[in-house]
């Protein structure tokens, strides 16, 4: 880990882990400030884990979470107060350290000259010129001019962001394209179901983000704070401003772990796990292997969520393991679904119901997980069945796989780009913004009524790239997205029900029925998921090679 010293009293750091605490104590730090809200990243430990380790080493911890890019004056005041109250020296951390450096800079605005703030933070490796500009402008970040300007700015370095940047760069190699994302690591999240089933090793699903960004595309390693589309501007952490001619918005979803009371305190222990977090997927497999009898709960929150089939994929692979081990008869499998159907496209339901019967699983519809008592191993569900009074039930468990509630990130929900529900407001065919004609969106945060999957992003990226290229050439959008999404439902080890569908639940199979009949479990679909799709993801999709993803086009104007 890195200690980036600003003054003798304060240093900042990127995200730390519980295992770093002994080194922090040995370096002489006596207190820690956490400025990163839980649930920002798929590989992020919760602050409770950090606090327990700090307490064991005699360090104090103060939790002052600030949403990325949303540093308010009152946050800076609280940070300055914490520095006065905590024993020093203090180490503050967030995702990259930028938020903590910003908070310190703003907290010193009344006692230090701007040049002194700049010098101290530059010595720690942080550029606070934007923060100083905010200070001298009375707390406002002007966006009429910018720190940098590009032909196209892509927000988000996940599957959608890298894929669309690569596809656009292949079409227009001379464009100045910038990709904005603060993460160090990029994850192949569809592989986490397989990690939780003991099939993939977790490290095979992770690569450095820098190694995946297309050559010729500029990587700005920073989080977005706000959009000002009227000025064609994006405001970053640290109050820097990036200007654009065209904007493509595709960050991932926010996993709202805290929406379930008590969940954060017990994740990764007390038999509670989730394949939606990189570091917890191996714990899923550990629990599955260790359970010989008892009750296993698998939860699914209200829609929308990324990969709507993932909660039941975990259930099927677990049930298959217990079936093979001969202990299934002693395990009570309960699927707790906040919705009212097993799967949203009815053509695939009969095949799935046969596996529900095989594993003896009980389907509990309209059951939404609202609280967890980890030490007591009790889960509380709000039950809201149609034509019935709402109630709550408490269910004992020995193992529980949780799918967290999900929503668009805060900087999307509060932006001018969002609709009333908080999603980027696009035309569902062209993926162009309905209000701002130089803005497009794809992936999980836009409001087209399609499944939120990596397979959907694979189809959307060429559509957006084609339409942005057409716009640059002075033409109307000519590529059309049909709502395609795919959900390979891992019903047992070695067989998959390959659900492929578009808008309105229309079946959109990629293969002839004699090769893969998506409505039935097949070995061929398993081989596709296990052996073919990962290399297609890494070597084709993220490199702009549009294998089986060339966009449908209409006549140009």
How is the quaternary structure best described? Answer: single chain
Radius of gyration: 24 Å
Task: Please give the CATH class of the largest domain.
Answer: Alpha Beta
Overall spatial form: globular
Strand content: 15-25%
Total separate domains: 3
Q: What count of helical segments does DSSP give?
A: 15
- Rounded average pLDDT: 92
CATH topology of the largest domain: FAD/NAD(P)-binding domain
- Number of separate strands: 28
CATH architecture of the largest domain: 3-Layer(bba) Sandwich
> Residue ranges: pLDDT <50 for 5 or more in a row?
none
Major beta sheet summary: 7 strands, mixed
CATH superfamily of the largest domain: FAD/NAD(P)-binding domain
Structural class: alpha/beta
The portion of residues assigned to helices is: 25-40%
Distance between the termini: 55 Å
Cofactor: FAD
InterPro entries: BLH_phosphatase-like (IPR005939), FAD/NAD-bd_sf (IPR036188), FAD/NAD-binding_dom (IPR023753), Prot-tyrosine_phosphatase-like (IPR029021), Sulphide_quinone_reductase (IPR015904)
Domain Beta-lactamase hydrolase-like protein phosphatase-like: 2-110
Domain FAD/NAD(P)-binding: 150-268
Describe the structure.
The model has no long low-confidence stretch (mean pLDDT 92). The longest helix has 19 residues, at 454-472. Strands 6, 7, 10, 11, 12, 13 and 24 form a seven-stranded mixed β-sheet that branches. β19 and β20 (378-383) form a beta hairpin. With 557 residues, the protein is of the alpha/beta class. The chain has 15 helices and 28 strands. This is Oxidoreductase (Flavoprotein). Keywords: FAD, Flavoprotein, Oxidoreductase, Quinone, Transit peptide.
